[in-house]
Amino acid sequence: MPGRDTLNLIEENVKNILSPLGFELVELKSMKSDRGLVLRLLIDRTEGGITLGECSQLNRQIGQVIDEKNLLSDRYILEVSSPGLDRPLVEPRDFRRNLDKIIHIFLREAKNGKLELEGKLIKLDTEGISIVDDKNQEQSVYFKEIVKAKKVIL
C-alpha cells in the first residue's frame, strides 16, 4: 500500500491534470484487492457532470503521469469514475453546491443521541454547516464532526 506521502503526490499530480480541463478530484482511495493495488478516483466537472468517455480519457492521462513520474513502484489498477448522484460531500465547496438541498450526515460521535442527521442544508461557513430537519429543528455541525455526508436523492 502506498504511504500518505505517495498518495499526496499522486493527488497533487492528478489535480494538476484536472484543473486546467475544468474537472476536480472528489475523492482518491487506495485499497488492496485480490488483483493487487487499486487506486480509485472519483472525478467530476467543476460545474457538475462527467461522461464515460471523459473518465476513460482521464484514466489514460492519469495512468501515463503516474507511470512517467514513477509515483508507484508496484503494479496497480486505476479506476476513474463519476461520483454519481449520491456524490460524497467532502470539501466546503461540495456543501456550498448543495445549499437548500436535503443532505445526510454521518457523525464521529453521537449528537443528541444520534450518529446520523438528515435535513435541508441552510447555512455554511468556514467552520461547519447548519441543517433544518423534518421537525423544523435547526442543528449546527462542525466539519470536524462529520465522517461522511451526501446529498439525499429523492
Reading the helices and strands in chain order gives HEEHEHEEEEE
| Rg (CA only) | 18 Å
Q: How many H/I helices?
A: 3
**Unreliable stretches covering 5 or more consecutive residues:** none
Task: Characterise this structure.
This protein has helices spanning 4-18, 52-68, 92-97, and strands at 23-33, 36-45, 76-81, 102-111, 114-124, 128-132, 138-142, 146-151. With 154 residues, the protein is an alpha+beta fold. The protein folds into two domains: 4-81, GMP Synthetase, Chain A, domain 3, CATH 3.30.300; 92-151, SH3 type barrels (Roll), CATH 2.30.30. The strands form two sheets. The chain has a five-stranded antiparallel sheet. A three-stranded mixed sheet has the order 1-2-3. A hairpin with a 2-residue loop joins strand 1 and strand 2. Helix 1 (4-18) packs across helix 2 (52-68). The longest helix has 17 residues, at 52-68.
Keywords:
SH3 type barrels, single chain, 8 strands, GMP Synthetase, Chain A, domain 3, 3 helices, 25% helix, elongated, 2 domains, 154 residues, alpha+beta
